[in-house]
């Protein structure tokens, strides 16, 4: 049974002075801190290569912040950044808005609160988990094809789709409190995958850029 580890890397901090939920909006770039986070992750992966890891596949969501997060790692590992649309941010009705209590109380939004378990204001958790896990399964197969048993892949994505995929892989309930997600900026959710079947065998979590997190933005839509 050939095995691959697929690392779901959340992008770095975004320059977002207006504090909007940017979702899938284009041209939201990394902040200076976000760029430092991306470089920190590149150094982390380079060190792992020095210790014997084999990274053979690197892909990112089509959104600017994910592509910019992937770029230093691509240079450090000598890999091309491939674009994987299935790991894009979730659709959200509130995209482009500052999500304040006052904004949420406006009657034009009320119909989007009918089912918070789905959730009714955006893409269903099940749909997010399914597309991300399908991308993970394919990444595992590509990694083994290119590098053999044990080769690894990196997918640069976004908090909510990563979290939904993790919950699904661990057999947990998908509806959740967003404040309790374990998926900080430039964190790694690492899935060990059977490359033949796509089954997730185990999940690990780490924060290689933890030293950069204090004071980082926590605006949603990431």
Automatic annotation (TrEMBL):
EC nos: 3.1.3.-
Keywords: Hydrolase
Enzyme class: hydrolase
Tree of life domain: Bacteria
Keyword DNA damage: no
Protein name: Histidine phosphatase family protein
GO molecular function: hydrolase activity
Xref: SMART domains: PGAM (SM00855)
UniProt xrefs under PANTHER family: BROAD-SPECIFICITY PHOSPHATASE YOR283W-RELATED (PTHR48100), PHOSPHOGLYCERATE MUTASE (PTHR48100:SF51)
Keyword match Hydrolase: yes
Organism: Sinomonas halotolerans
């Amino acid at each position: 049974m050939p095995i691959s580890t697929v690392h779901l890397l959340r992008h770095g901090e975004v320059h977002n002075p207006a504090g909007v939920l940017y979702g899938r909006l284009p041209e939201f770039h990394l902040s200076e801190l976000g760029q430092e986070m991306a470089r920190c992750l590149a150094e982390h992966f380079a060190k792992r290569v020095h210790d014997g890891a084999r990274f053979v596949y690197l892909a990112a969501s089509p959104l600017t912040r994910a592509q910019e997060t992937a770029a230093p790692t691509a240079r450090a590992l000598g890999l091309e950044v491939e674009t994987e649309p299935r790991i894009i941010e979730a659709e959200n009705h509130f995209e482009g808005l500052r999500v304040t209590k006052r904004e949420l109380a406006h009657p034009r939004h009320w119909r989007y609160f009918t089912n918070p378990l789905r959730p009714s204001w955006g893409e269903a958790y099940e749909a997010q988990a399914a597309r991300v896990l399908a991308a993970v399964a394919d990444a595992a197969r590509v990694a083994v094809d290119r590098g053999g048993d044990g080769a690894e892949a990196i997918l640069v994505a976004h908090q909510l789709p990563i979290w939904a995929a993790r919950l699904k892989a661990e057999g947990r309930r998908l509806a959740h409190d967003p404040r309790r997600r374990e998926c900080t900026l430039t964190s790694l959710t690492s899935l060990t995958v059977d490359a033949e079947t796509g089954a997730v065998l185990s999940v690990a979590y780490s924060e290689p850029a933890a030293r950069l997190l204090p004071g980082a933005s926590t605006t949603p839509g990431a």
